[in-house]
Specification:
The protein has 576 residues and is an alpha/beta fold. Among the domains are: 92 residues, Arginyl tRNA synthetase N-terminal domain (Gyrase A, domain 2, 2-Layer Sandwich), CATH 3.30.1360; 138 residues, Isoleucyl-tRNA Synthetase, Domain 1; 80 residues, no CATH class. The chain contains 19 helices and 15 strands. The strands form four sheets. Strands 7-6-5-11-12 form a five-stranded parallel sheet, with helices on both faces. It has a four-stranded antiparallel sheet with strand order 1-2-4-3. Helix 6 packs across helix 7 and helix 17 packs antiparallel against helix 18. It is globular. It binds one RNA strand of 77 nucleotides through helix 2, strand 10, helix 15, helix 17 and helix 18.
Length: 576
RNA sequence: GCGCCCGUAGCUCAGUUGGAUAGAGCACGAGACUUCUAAUCUUGAGGCCGGUGGUUCGAAUCCACCCGGGCGCACCA
């Protein structure tokens, strides 16, 4: 249990005592009570807002209540002072040994420091991400959602959730028909036919050539002149499988592996969509009706048509949404509602990572989840904004139509997996992100990937040097650390808290920012040795002091490694 | 016209779920090297947190309405 969590428990025990003694009324809202690092280090080691949050429901004033709580906090083991400050904060000063113990915990827990072990109580979160249409290779635009989703999945695991990483394969729509037709053309090409230019509306990419060849190997010339109705149902699954192989390979370049691939076509074939529709119908949430024409610009081909509609407006949507098209087939939403129903049956909570251009469809799917699970399961949608590509400050032009886009594979090949992953997490997901091929590989402070890696490499270098000088043997006396060094311990000790808060907010980027700050603090501490050789981490004539500082460095290194592990980034041992 | 997201230093962005004097990087000013203990660090200046009201002990954060930008708005995915 982390230091902050331990003191949170102790504080709650004290508040419980106060309730029993009648000082506080029963049934107070405790969720808002927090143990935090104080804004200013001079205020102490820990701060709590308990008195301010509880004063109103307890019908007293914050400072008076703080006066009740503070002496009891001061009596706790490891606390040397508890002062009431400002509007009612209680600031705690801790015995330095508490931080020394936390540093020891960092090293003892190692790769698990910051992890929550929820055991049997772990909630299962299904997180669906990437889910790119299986019509071609992954391009650079897919990479951000892929990384954010994957890092969020790891983050949630660290925070004690059980996680299912899922990919929804959209293999049932018109795009997949187009894909199969495009492949058929390549198939005829592989059979020696001159197919000329790829007609408008078909996928022109060369990546379909090997698929055509594979089709030839599998079926010979059997379908070359056959009517479409004969080969389409055969080609579709064949080609989709090839595309998914390609996509899985692309994702593997980023270190991304899903647990589950769910097919929309199989979902429809299994009757799951009828089941979802029937369930909604039984709840009186489905009707046959005609929608109003869209506001603003009315499409030229609009005409009133009766559709099977879901009453999503009952759940806050602007408009009821069609589940079936006028030809009787399922809409994307119809299948999607059933798909989320299926996911909800295997998890306690759902998370989707979507491109921001799908913002408009969030409410209807959330409505469906609420309706189908009677409000027992929730869906959070994390919207990811676009990435703007630059090269030396100049925008990289991309055109989907001409097939001139930067693929994910090219991107990873040029700058490396770790750079792509780290950079995609240096912005809040819902803010646009600039990615400059030149800057992200630069060896400078402006490049956060480098900056954090460099801090870790310096620590690794320290460990090597200490081992070579024989300074690393024996137990360290951490009481030799000075205030600046202990401040570094305090900062590293926030890691478990940062993990928990980032997980609760579904915001993996917080890990990246935290690591950058921790790296900065370490670099500053390291640099003290330039001005004052007595502040260097390793001093041969002072083995005891060196051992203590080496422990500190190892603790920082461990936290950097653990944070990078959440992000899926390797920790560099050296920068050469 | 409606919905969602966003608006914080000249620029790019954080801001611990409502807390104490709003932070960091770049750029600008001043300083410390000759490279795994300078790929870095120290320090200075820089703010109407888009605006106006409201909620309360307390608001960049929550609510309402404006202003400005992005995305999306029947059976496409």
């Amino acid at each position: 249990m982390s230091l902050y969590a331990r003191f949170q428990d102790k504080l709650e025990a004290i508040l419980g005592d106060l309730v029993r003694e009648g000082v506080l009324p029963d049934g107070l809202p405790m969720q808002a009570v927090a143990v935090e690092p104080p804004r200013d280090a001079s205020h102490g080691d820990l701060a709590t807002n308990a008195a301010m949050v509880l004063a109103k429901p307890a019908r007293t004033n914050p400072r008076a209540l703080a006066g009740e709580i503070a002496p009891r906090l001061e009596a706790l083991d490891g606390v040397t002072a508890a002062e009431v400050a400002g509007p009612g904060f209680i600031n705690l000063k801790l015995d330095p040994r508490v931080w020394d113990e936390e540093l020891e915990a960092m090293l003892a827990e190692g790769d698990h420091y910051g992890r929550v072990d929820a055991g049997e109580d772990a909630r299962t979160i299904n997180i669906e991400y990437v889910s790119a249409n299986p019509t071609g290779p992954m391009h650079m635009g897919h990479s951000r959602g892929a990384v954010v989703g994957d890092a969020l999945a790891s983050l949630l695991e660290w925070a004690g959730r059980k996680v299912v990483r899922e990919y929804y394969v959209n293999d049932a729509g018109a795009q997949v028909d187009t894909l199969a037709r495009s492949a058929h053309l390549r198939y005829r090409e592989a059979l020696g036919e001159d197919i000329g230019a790829i007609p408008e509306g078909l996928y022109p990419g060369d990546y379909l050539k090997p698929v055509g060849a594979a089709l030839k190997d599998a079926y010979g010339a059997r379908y070359a002149q056959a009517p479409e109705a004969e080969w389409l149902p055969v080609f579709k699954p064949f080609v989709v499988e090839k595309m998914m192989d390609m996509i899985r390979k692309d994702l593997a370049l980023l270190g991304i592996h899903h647990d589950l691939f769910s097919s929309e076509a199989e979902l429809q074939a299994s009757g799951k969509v009828e089941e979802a529709l029937a369930t909604l119908r039984a709840k009186g949430l489905v009707y046959e009706g005609v929608l109003e024409p869209p506001k603003g610009e009315t499409p030229a081909d609009w005409e009133p048509v009766e559709l099977t509609l879901f009453r999503s407006t009952q759940f806050g949507d602007d408009q009821d949404r069609p589940m079936k098209k006028s030809d009787g087939s399922w809409t994307y939403f119809g299948a999607d509602a059933a798909y989320h129903y299926q996911k909800a049956q295997g998890a306690d909570h759902l998370v989707n990572i979507w491109g921001a251009d799908h913002a408009g469809t969030v409410k209807r799917v959330q409505s469906a989840v609420t309706a189908l699970t009677d409000g027992e399961k929730g869906l959070d949608v994390k919207l990811v904004q676009m990435v703007r590509l630059f090269r030396d400050g100049e925008p990289v032009k991309m055109s989907k139509r001409s097939g001139n886009f930067v693929t994910l594979a090219e991107m990873v090949e040029e700058v490396g997996k770790d750079v792509v992953r780290f950079m995609m997490l240096t912005r809040k997901a819902d803010a646009p992100l600039d990615f400059d091929f030149a800057k992200v590989t630069e060896a400078s402070k402006e490049n956060p990937v480098f900056y954090v890696q460099y801090a870790h490499a310096r620590i690794s270098s320290l460990k090597r040097k200490a081992a070579a000088a024989g300074l690393d043997a024996g137990a360290a006396d951490l009481t030799l650390l000075d205030e600046v060094e202990r401040a570094l311990v305090r900062q590293a000790a926030q890691f478990p808290r940062v993990v928990r808060l980032a997980a609760d907010a579904y915001e993996p980027h917080r890990i990246a920012f935290y690591l950058y700050d921790l790296a900065a603090a370490f670099h500053a501490s390291w640099n003290r040795g330039n001005d004052d050789p007595g502040k260097r981490f390793l001093i041969e004539e002072q083995p005891d002091l060196s051992r203590a500082r080496l422990e500190l460095a190892r603790g920082i290194g461990q936290v950097l490694r653990n944070g990078l592990a959440i992000m899926g980034v390797e920790a560099a041992e050296e920068m050469r």
